[in-house]
Write a structure and sequence with these properties.
Largest sheet: none
Strand content: under 5%
Shape: elongated
Radius of gyration: 14 Å
Structural class: mainly alpha
Order of helices and strands: HHH
Helix content: over 70%
Distance between the termini: 55 Å
Number of helices: 3
Amino acid sequence: MTAILDTEAVALSTAHSLAMARAGVHSAVNADDTHRRRQYALSARDNAVTVLLEPTSPRSEREYAEYYLADAEAIIAATTPVE
């Protein structure tokens, strides 16, 4: 019984992380300033990587996470301060 609960917890966790990655990308795109855009993109990147690093995450979730990761990385690159 515990193994089933652990598997369900991981599934819920990766689904939640994927949803947070998607929300982070959308929030970054709609942010009013560069600082907020970057912060949302960093959060989206972290959540997408969480899904990608979980070995039991479903293939469909990993595919979406790759898209969100690419979007987040592009936003981060565009908002990185030049010194």
